Amino acid sequence: MSGILDGKRILITGVLMESSIAFHAAKVAQEQGAEVILTAFPRPTLTERIAKKLPKPAKVIELDVTNQEHLDRLAGLVREELGSLDGVVHSIGFAPQDALGGNFLNTPFESVSTAMHVSAFSLKSLAMACKPLMSEGGSIVGLTFDAQYAWPQYDWMGPAKAALEATSRYLARDLGKDGLRCNLISAGPIRSMAAKSIPGFEELADVWNTRAPLAWDMNDPEPAGRSIVALLSDFFPRTTGEIIHVDSGVHMIGA
Ligand SMILES: NC(=O)c1ccc[n+]([C@@H]2O[C@H](COP(=O)([O-])OP(=O)(O)OC[C@H]3O[C@@H](n4cnc5c(N)ncnc54)[C@H](O)[C@@H]3O)[C@@H](O)[C@H]2O)c1
User: Fold this and answer.
1) Any idea what DSSP says for residue 233?
2) Tell me, what's the pLDDT at 249?
3) Alpha carbon of 162 to those of 47, 184, 252: distances in Å?
4) Cα 24 to middle of ligand 1, angstroms
5) Spatial distance between the Cα atoms of 255 and 252, rounded to a whole number of angstroms
6) I need a labelling partner for 44 at 20 to 30 A (CA). Which of 65, 117, 207, 254 fits?
7) In this model, does residue 180 exceed pLDDT 90?
């Protein structure tokens, strides 16, 4: 059976639990014929345990996206395993507790800086770390939570996602000449570890219960995973700097 990622080699960050959006991207990518390599934070053992639940084995490489040594050695380690890459998934987000949950006006810059470093600047770091492996071009895909709006509880993750969205556009601008596309999926709320770390996440997510034109299941990351795979495939060949909403339509409902 042929798949839309047949013959493609894809690096996927952010597999922590089965509830991780990245786990579902990896699962669908393998089902669609890709060879997948995973990166892990904070410990490879956690990701290795979850990776056993994927349809096929996947090698795991440790990567703290704020650690320059990890970034510098990444291309060499991936080259040993796969030779080259056709796609990269950035599924990484983090903000310290005092940057979330209603503390917006009092959050110290150190916490904002951490949120920006891990959640936004890291898209550039990861793209540049993997660029030497994508000399034939490729697709970079990240995950955002619609940064056009001020959400309850989301606080400094909002500006961090706005920075991520802008970073994606600038990467698309600067990497287009190398045949590299950079796009984001703007996903609706999913009950992942990242979501559980946001105090009041359920209040934020409740909007989906009342406004989503299409049914939305917060326990199902597969729609986001499938859309990531679509962007990794050859079926969006002239799309870059784009944000595709996978949110059951909530982004376009006024009231
Ligand atoms: N869950 C949601 O409601 C939702 C909605 C829209 C977008 N997103 C985004 O999707 C992405 C994946 O989140 P998720 O919901 O699957 O949660 P998750 O907790 O499963 O994934 C977050 C990942 O970030 C990784 N990470 C954190 N700090 C890191 C670092 N320094 N270096 C490398 N990796 C690091 C964690 O290891 C984890 O795998 C994030 O960008 C998140 O903001 C999530």
Assistant:
1) S
2) 98
3) 28, 12, 18
4) 13
5) 9
6) 117
7) yes
**Residue 1 reports pLDDT greater than 80:** no
- pLDDT confidence of 203, banded at 50, 70, 90? confident
- 154 catalytic, yes or no? yes
Catalytic position from the list 27, 161, 170, 177: 161
Enter the tokens of residue 212. 């989503």
Tokens of 37: 């390599």
- Which residue, by CA, sits nearest to atom 37 of ligand 1? 41
Tell me, what amino acid is at 165? E
Q: How far is the CA of 37 from the centre of ligand 1 (A)?
A: 17
pLDDT tens across 33-90, in order? 999 999 999 999 999 999 999 999 999 999 999 999 999 999 999 999 999 999 999 9
pLDDT value at position 255?
A: 84
How many Cβ atoms are within 10 Å of 76's Cβ, its own excluded?
Answer: 10
For ligand 1, the distance from its centroid to the CA atom of residue 91, given in whole angstroms, is 5
CB 43 within 8 A of CB 30: no
Amino acid making up residue 61: I
Residue 9 CB-half CA count within 13 A: 16
